[in-house]
Amino acid sequence: MACLSLDLLPYFSFFMFNLRKEQLKIFETIAAKEYEERALAQLREHSPAQCAALGESALVEIVHYGTGKAKAYGIVAEPDVCKYLGIMLQLGKDFDCNPRYPWAARTLNDASLGDPSARVNRLAAEALEAVAALGAKRAGSGGETTG
């Protein structure tokens, strides 16, 4: 009975995991769809009324658009991107360049905060303050908003 030499194992493993571009594309497509589903589930969990009001196609568009915007700021880790998407859902799809939220662009571009997670965490804290202030303003004016 012939036995395979362990010296040959690296050569066999090289051939076993040689993927073609078409196969990689399939894996990328599957991974992207799974990411999309997780991001949608997270948004639905944290903002069910807004998600229901928007509808599925608009929500999917927000995930795609927001993921691209987050990536432009170097935000690529899934938990950070999901936080970014949640902020986007609360403040609007272009909150990062909205003059109502000048702190957003400053925070997203603030290299002194270190890694993208630190920037997103700061951004989330600032967004909570902004939403709370807006809520207080609405409550003080009888629920009416003025532009």
Primary descriptors:
single chain; 147 residues; mainly alpha; 7 helices
Percentage beta strand:
under 5%
User: Residue share in helices?
Assistant: over 70%
Stretches where pLDDT is under 50 for at least 5 consecutive residues are: none
Oligomer: single chain
Amino- and carboxy-terminal Cα gap: 83 Å
H/E element order: HHHHHHH
Q: Quick check: average pLDDT?
A: 86
Structural class: mainly alpha
What coarse outline follows from CA principal-axis ratios? globular
| Largest sheet descriptor | none
Q: How many separate helices?
A: 7
Number of strands: 0
| Rg on CA atoms, Å | 22 Å
How would you sum up this structure in a few lines?
The protein has 147 residues and is mainly alpha-helical. It has helices at 9-16, 21-46, 48-54, 56-72, 78-91, 102-108, 116-140. It is globular.
